[in-house]
Write a structure and sequence with these properties.
Number of helices of chain A: 10
Strand content of chain A: 15-25%
Distance between the termini of chain A: 37 Å
CATH class of the largest domain in chain A: Alpha Beta
Structural class of chain A: alpha/beta
Largest interface: A-B, 55 and 55 residues
CATH superfamily of the largest domain in chain A: Alpha/Beta hydrolase fold, catalytic domain
Shape of chain A: globular
Largest sheet of chain A: 8 strands, mixed
Order of helices and strands of chain A: EEEEEEEEEEHEHEHHHEEHHHEHEH
Oligomer: homodimer
CATH architecture of the largest domain in chain A: 3-Layer(aba) Sandwich
CATH topology of the largest domain in chain A: Rossmann fold
Helix content of chain A: 25-40%
């Protein structure tokens, strides 16, 4: 049964699928995963030409459940506002593939999976990952699905990094890359926030040097802190002001009052932290924040983003949000400028929004139009080519 | 002996003094400190008219040691660049008083002091404090020093809040207030960062609900995290980029390398966190961050800053720094606009700086000129009045 809120243009009920990838996956760090499992969802139908597939790349804490409802769910997937029939990423026109990436913790092989060599959970011994490893794993899923070229690879934040990496590593397998609220590399400030989050996790005595599963413990306090730090950086100062201001949840700031006082924003953040620590794995958080830190689009291209994008052959749509200070518009302009200098086809939309980095998840008419129109043109071209 | 670096315009060796204030201090929360100790330093000489005294108000983690050297020190006090002979806060012209405030942890009465009623350290039971309590305690020190009016009360950040509070609570005891990188109240984002810092401290099992002293423990991990969070917000994104960029301290990001990797910025932040947790008290950190959160200049003035400043009779200098995102120039403009609307004498300088909130501590020619010229005019007026 779908909840009533799902009535309009919902994909409806969806079931996760899984693929056992038995081809060895060589990781950038030198390690090899002899086999791995990928959990994914698909929305819409693959056409006869098998050329209308869109790959959705999730960010740090994302999963495969991007749209529609699982049986019993009150809330749809994380990008449901943008994926569905007649939505910007239109499931009437495209075959949409959304995969939980390796190293994460929602069913695909990651730190909570059993390492076949030891018979125990990988935990902190799961190999270091790079965005290119996610791309390579997604390519093996692509083989599994018998798709030879993505119509579009699309992602926000770390998802945008995967889309860019796809365009460089497999230029013949991507027609369009949509890069939202992303960057060619993190700034020192970005890395600093990630490191504080990691240290919060590692400081939790229940982390047990990453072997908490073996000790039947969960570093929930550290993970909650990590999420709280991240969460503040995903929101804009302005949005937090509008949403919470200086409203109190408990107590009163009048004089002669020594009772507890709590601001709404404190309560909200503590709740978000606790909720997240119930759902996410601490080793995955460390692994994936490092993947973010290590990403540097042009490192292997002589640190020249123009030379790097010279290898791409797809078209690009780059989108940023005005109040996003974690992945500022300036970063998206750098991507766009490098693409222009590399003589690539690129559209850039800087969307006015007061919602910070989280804007990529939220309703916004101009964002919907920019994304929807771009994808509609692609769908029209595909139909013309039939 | 002074270190060689101290040669030019240094105050030289200074010794902390202390005052036992035996007059009861009524706190805003309703509690009363029957007596309290204040540790302070003075630089320069009080003139015969006793009207050339400047009060320095410290911020969250500050102390009384603002300038000069203690015996054996390698580094001078925290505001030594700005306080000394012929420096912007000129010890040849003014009698400068710098006090460690109550609730802090550098000798003045605070959570690490013994509660005379229990014979044990106050710890987490130290009464809740407001900026006005610091002002009241400073007023008692003023009595102790037989000063009836400050020529200038000056402070940055939380220090600026004290200067503003002085101007409203005791308009007849302040001639000039200098408010640097401050705000009339914190934003939701400010409160959020403070709350994450507090939660980091409280999450540390060694915090023992604030009774760590009784258990011979120190919540060093939590306090280090708290400082790391604060520290990132005191620096600008730009400065961190210049200072650290993506430089590695350990390891290499080449492929086929599964060895540890550490960015310079991670190492720097971890070092800053650890250093701070050796020097500061966790209960003081919680107490003073709450004081920051609770500060709201015009709460008792019908939430009208113009009405609030209507009570002031001193002149104001307001200073902000362009890259300060913790106490953004916008906050200082609000202060200035309210002062103008309240028909007060106010000068406002928005200083170009890439150094973030920390700019108030660092060399900057325009900042030095703005502050120095303002204070020189005051000194000249004082001489004219002799």
């Amino acid at each position: 049964m779908l909840p009533e809120s799902a009535a309009k243009n919902s994909i409806g009920l969806v079931k996760p699928q899984s693929a056992d990838i038995t081809r060895p996956l060589k990781l950038a760090c030198g390690a090899v995963l002899p086999s791995h499992k990928l959990v994914f969802e698909t929305y819409g139908e693959l056409n006869a030409e098998r050329n209308n597939a869109i790959l959705i790349c999730h960010a740090l804490s994302g999963d495969h459940h991007a749209a529609g409802f699982h049986e019993g769910d009150d809330k749809p997937g994380w990008w449901d506002h943008y994926i569905g029939p007649e939505k910007p990423i239109d499931s009437n026109k495209f075959f949409i593939v959304s995969v939980n990436n390796i190293g994460s913790c929602f069913g695909s092989t990651g730190p909570t999976s059993i390492n076949p060599e030891t018979g125990e959970a990988w935990g902190a011994t799961f190999p270091s990952l790079r965005a290119r490893d996610w791309v390579e794993s997604q390519r093996l899923l692509m083989e599994h699905l018998q798709i030879t070229c993505w119509a579009v690879v699309i992602g926000a934040s770390l998802g945008g990094m995967q889309a860019m990496r796809w365009s460089l590593e497999h230029p013949d397998m991507v027609r369009h890359a949509v890069v939202i609220a992303s960057a060619m590399k993190l700034t020192a400030q970005n890395i600093a926030f990630n490191e504080i989050a990691r240290r919060a996790i590692k400081s939790d005595p229940d982390f047990c040097d990453g072997n908490y599963l073996q000790h039947n413990k969960v570093p929930a306090r550290g993970l909650a802190l990590a999420r709280m730090i991240g969460h503040v950086t995903y929101l804009s100062d302005e949005l937090m002001g509008q949403k919470f201001g200086r409203q109190l949840r408990i107590g009163d700031l009048i004089e002669k009052n020594n009772n507890p006082i709590e601001f709404q924003v404190e309560s909200y953040l503590n709740y978000q932290g606790d909720k997240f620590s119930d759902a996410f794995d601490a080793n995955s958080y460390i692994l994936i924040t490092k993947m973010l830190d290590y990403f540097d689009l042009s490192r292997e291209y002589n640190n020249d983003p123009i030379a790097a994008f010279g290898h791409a052959s797809c078209d690009f749509l780059v989108i940023s949000f005005s109040s996003d200070w974690r992945f500022a518009p300036e970063r998206s302009r750098e991507i766009t400028d490098a693409l222009i200098a590399a003589n690539k086809s690129v559209s850039y939309a800087e969307i006015e929004s007061d919602k910070g980095h989280d804007a990529f998840l939220l309703p916004n008419a101009r964002y919907e139009a920019a994304l929807g129109n771009y994808l509609t043109r692609i769908a029209t071209q595909l139909q013309g080519a039939e």
